[in-house]
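B., you asked whether I could sanity-check this one before it goes into the benchmark set. Here's the sequence:
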Amino acid sequence: MLIVKTQPHIIFRLVLAKTLFKSGIELCETRVDVFNFSHGLIALHDALDNFTGAIATQLNIHLRPDSTLIATLNLIQEYEKKSDQAFIIKSRNELVQLNTIRNNIKHQGITPNINGTKTLIEPIVTFFREYSKRYFDLEWEVISLADLIKKDIVKPEKCVN
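And here's what the prediction gave me:
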């Protein structure tokens, strides 16, 4: 059994976001399969939903159950602007574009142009890297259940079989 010093649901969401992220990146590596590419974009969007939700929880920002990715980004930005008027979420334009593309895929069956959409991937990766460090003091690349267990925020107290 694991005893978590900080909120366990945040850690769970980070690990879930990382799992969805990895799946999305792998699926987006295709150059020709528009269906796998579309699936990858949806997985990246789901990863962002979980990641930004974890940020909001970390900042004690209340999210409505039906909150969208864009609404969550807006709330995070409003929170940050209270202490830094110049704060702007990095890669925001690309996240908004991904949100639009995801809605087109999911709600209208419109698949994206792979070559044109691949340019969104690197700014999305940058977003995860930047904000996992800023809000959780974690390197995005090392977030996994095994790595989090090794960190001070998660301590094995005793194992019960």
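One thing to flag: The longest strand covers residues 2-4. Otherwise nothing jumped out at me.
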